[in-house]
Amino acid sequence: MSTRLKSGGRLIDRSAPLDFTFNGKRLRGCAGDTLASALLANDQMLLGRSFKYHRPRGLVASGAEEPNALVNLGQGARLEPNQRTTTTELFDGLEARSQNHWPSLDFDVGVVNNYAARLLPGGFYYKTFIHPRAAWKHFFEPIIRHSAGLGSAPKDRDADRYEQAYAFCDLLIVGGGVAGLQAALVAGRAGARVWLVEQTAHWGGRAPVDGDVVGGMPAADWVEAAVLELSAMDNVTLRLRCMAAGSYDHGYVLLDEKLADHTPGDGRPRHRLWRMRVGKILAATGAIERPLSFAGNDIPGVMLAGAVRDYAVNWAVSPGDRTVVVTNNDDAYRTAIVLKEAGLEVAAVIDARNIANGPLPERARALGIRVETGRAIARVKGGKRVEAVEICQQAGEGAASTTLSCDAVAMSGGWSPVVHLWSHCGGKLIWDESEAMFRPDATRPPLHADGTAMVLCAGAANGALRQAVADADAQVKIALQALGFEAESEEVPAHDVADESALEPVWIMPQGAGIALRSKMWLDFQNDVKVSDVQLAAREGYESVEHTKRYTTLGMATDQGKLSNINGLAVLADSLNAQIPQVGTTTFRPPYTPVPLGALAGEARGEIFQPLRKTPMHDWHQQNGAYFEPVGHWRRPYCFQRPGETPEQAVHREVKNTREALGLLDASTLGKIIVKGPDAGRFLDMLYTGVMSTLPIGKCRYGLMCNEQGFLSDDGVVARIDADTWLCHTTSGGADRIHAWMEDWLQCEWWDWQVFTANVTEQYAQVAVVGPNARKLLESLGGMDVSKEALPFMHWADGTLGGFACRVYRISFSGELSYEIAVPASQGAAFWALLHKAGAAFGAMPYGTEALHVMRAEKGFIMIGDETDGTIIPQDLGLDWAISKKKPDYLGKRGQERSFLANPDRWKLVGFETLDGSVIEDGAYIPEHGVNANNQRRVQGRVTSTYHSPTLGRGIAMGLLRQGPARMGEVVEFTRMDGGVTPARVVDPVFFDKDGEKQNV
Amino acid sequence: MLILSCPYCGIDAEETELAPGGEAHLKRFGPGSDDDAFEAYMFARKNPKGVHFERWRHAYGCGKWFLAARCTATLEVFGTYPAQSTEPPVEIVEKIKAKRPEWKGFS
């Protein structure tokens, strides 16, 4: 059984007990425990089920690489699925539940998959679910979805808050082990701005566990002194529980700092996401131990040797009473020694090498530990717990010679540097034959903006598994020199570790294992990928490691292959008779370990998810029943609902009232761009399809803008202000885009033209006063002459109205008598209130964007985005009148000359009138007979704007129809969602007041 | 998330401050140009792995367009210069040649 030892445990405080529950069972740990160590101390070895076969799973590791022991943590609004028990600090009241089993952890029905494992080989999904096609959607997918997946997704809104922060430094050192600390000391003393971050809650990494001696003292003491010195440096920032998730272009790094994971609900943000820009990254991220592939290496109780050592030394937990250590290297002997010295039994060290006579094996022998060289584990016996191991020759095929009873197995296949931060941005790796590992190739680093190395690796992460401090010292000095700092010449602290003799690469144990054994050798514990699956993939032709990964799901589990990748690709290389470096690795992608979506979102949730643009009259709208719709980042009233009204009824009332009495529209969102300068007229003639340079001062003209392909991009009314000044109105959503478009041409093409532009959209509030009573209202305010004679249609004038300085444009988007009045934005709300107060006598009502749309459609006016979609030229919309034939050039002219745009079969704008007065559905098509090359129904047109016209009492629509204008009077059929059709007659798109008499009074 | 120096305001601007504008040094073909020339101007863009010249606008800064010489594979930046240039400045071309001897030169 696994249990808490009577003494020891460098990280725990036995005087501070903490209560927690696992699957509802009350358990007790102590301060300093991780959830994993506390569960082990309570003999809870079975912690979950695997993804595919639902095999029992227990702890394998002690850190971020743990693939098995994931739990649902917390409940309700604080439920977090897939939390690693190994990186979860224990707190009082913690609630954890195991995952991926039904009905219970101990008895899981899904384990039948295990007995059907022969029917579920690599690529099983791809092979099985192809035929019949319909079965995927209705049969296979629902079943797979039910049986797959690990934790349960939280249903409540996240109760925690998250924050983000920016930071800058010269040198970011990732990893607070002895390598990171030595690098920070050197860089800190040199005066660089240094950040040192460590993902766990403790400084020091593995050195204190392994009994290293640094600078002549035990590693733990040296670490304490180093942290003390660093804490006193103003230029050094230290962060624990802070994980560097990824390195990105030009020194950009994301870090996830766990602030309150271990103190939930204390009011602090749960995580803080740091967005850093750094001069250099020094990755002192250590190394991860590799498992060995022997049959039954996934049975609970089989753990990494380094992890067994961690649990014993850090938390005084023994994973078993009687442990077998299995290894291909000297390092694992440390585990045997630690266990023996803790008073536990070590059944044997099974060493795959024929010779083991380094200092560590010799010390183990001296302690009375049985060492078996040239041997291997043939298979592990046991179900939910290791019971025994069968021993065989490593060189053989697995014939067992001995059976050793034990309840834990500590395995070590060597160590792999953690090169993620190096590789995220393209740093290349080199295969190190002697340690059988990939390590950073210093000649091919990821580059910073200036072409120098952006990342350096130090210590074990750089492949220096035993001389970490010296390597870190050397690497940080290279980084400092590149950054322009001078390191003080201090002696490098000696880092004394026992000599180790060479490891022997062992990718399968035993070497000649048959299929029965190989199909029980796990590579990826969480995703149930075995040696036999990778070998099958190779036989089926998957030569690329990236393809094999996707075919077998190797390394696609939540640990992202931290344990499985190297073993998997070694097996693949062997199957392909290739060298490991030729097979290569899969791509390393951020994040290093999962980052909560809440941390990535930060404060951007709820009301501040995105900033809203509000007009000066926004508050009035809110207080007066506005039903808002988004228009770009603006919120505009769709209509103003009165009590008891539906939005539809409100729109109809607003249209009728505007046509019969007086409507007021907040038109402030309309884009307003001033174009000024000696060449402004010439510039606008290039921008618009029409001629703007000849527009007389005091007059307005409607204009169209196209892109260089000739497609319609924006429209609006241009006013000539004075000899060298024009004011261009754009669509509400187009103001920023069109302003940028103008600047693009002025700065990059016609940079010798003297023109300034200014986007003054938000500097003015604008109100459309619309309807037969519009002039009466303005005259009642007094101030300026707004008569037909003084201010004719398509003219503008400056003046005052009711004491407000304003500019009045006689333009109309509704077909009614209409004035658009601009006042300074600061006075918009007051002016709007005055219009309502004075307008009451004339029947004034506010109207929203939908009434605006209905009225413009009644008049046959096009709307950018409705009648246009980026493939429509003005000629398609019957707007030839707005295109100058005389101008030699304008943006889009050459594009419009392309031959296919002259095709008479193009869809062109017409109006549609339903035969029964109903409204054509939004987005409806006009099909015709026959099918196209893809066997889809052919179409000859579609609706672009469709409304019920309250003015006419029936449905009206505009749309595009092949040869439309030539087909007036013809009846066509529109599709309906219910499968039926709506017959409609092709008519002129102007439905109301065809001669424009109402606006011109 | 690139960092580019704006040659106008001198600020080292992060990519979030910038708006990309595609290939630099295009020659506009307007009315009167033949179909091939117009097609090349409109649609045929270089997409090299390696040295490339691009348009960027310091959109959330000074608002100016500028040009950047950059390696698309390693993201190394060789330099930035004003948009009012018909070809890359000599010193940037020399710098690229020194760092990328295999580069065939600006065309």
Features:
heterodimer; A: 1001 residues; FAD/NAD(P)-binding domain; six-stranded mixed sheet; 26 helices; 52 strands; elongated; B: 107 residues; alpha+beta; Folate-binding fold; four-stranded antiparallel sheet; 2 helices; globular
Detail the topology: elements first, then pairings.
The complex is a heterodimer of chains A (1001) and B (107).
Chain A: E1 3-4, E2 13-22, E3 25-31, H1 35-41, E4 48-49, E5 56-57, E6 70-73, E7 80-84, E8 94-98, H2 112-115, H3 124-128, H4 133-147, E9 162-174, H5 178-189, E10 194-197, H6 207-210, E11 213-214, E12 217-218, H7 219-231, E13 236-239, E14 242-248, E15 252-258, E16 271-283, E17 287-289, E18 302-304, H8 305-315, E19 317-318, E20 322-327, H9 333-341, E21 345-351, H10 359-366, E22 371-373, E23 375-382, E24 386-393, E25 402-405, E26 408-412, E27 415-417, H11 420-424, E28 429-432, E29 437-440, E30 455-457, H12 468-483, E31 495-496, H13 515-518, E32 522-524, E33 529-530, H14 531-539, H15 545-552, H16 565-575, H17 580-583, H18 597-601, H19 618-623, E34 626-631, E35 634-640, H20 647-660, E36 662-666, E37 671-676, H21 680-687, E38 700-706, E39 712-722, E40 725-730, H22 735-748, E41 756-759, E42 764-770, H23 774-781, E43 796-801, E44 804-809, E45 818-824, H24 828-839, E46 844-846, H25 849-858, H26 893-896, E47 907-914, E48 925-931, E49 937-949, E50 954-962, E51 971-975, E52 981-987
Parallel strand pairs in A: 2-8, 9-10, 9-16, 10-13, 16-30, 18-26, 20-21, 20-26, 21-22, 36-46
Antiparallel strand pairs in A: 1-19, 2-3, 4-5, 6-7, 6-8, 11-12, 11-31, 14-15, 15-16, 17-27, 23-24, 24-25, 28-29, 32-33, 34-35, 36-42, 37-40, 37-41, 38-39, 39-40, 42-45, 43-44, 44-45, 47-50, 47-52, 48-49, 49-50, 51-52
Chain B: E1 3-5, E2 12-14, E3 19-23, H1 35-42, E4 51-57, E5 65-71, E6 77-82, H2 90-99
Antiparallel strand pairs in B: 1-2, 3-4, 4-5, 5-6
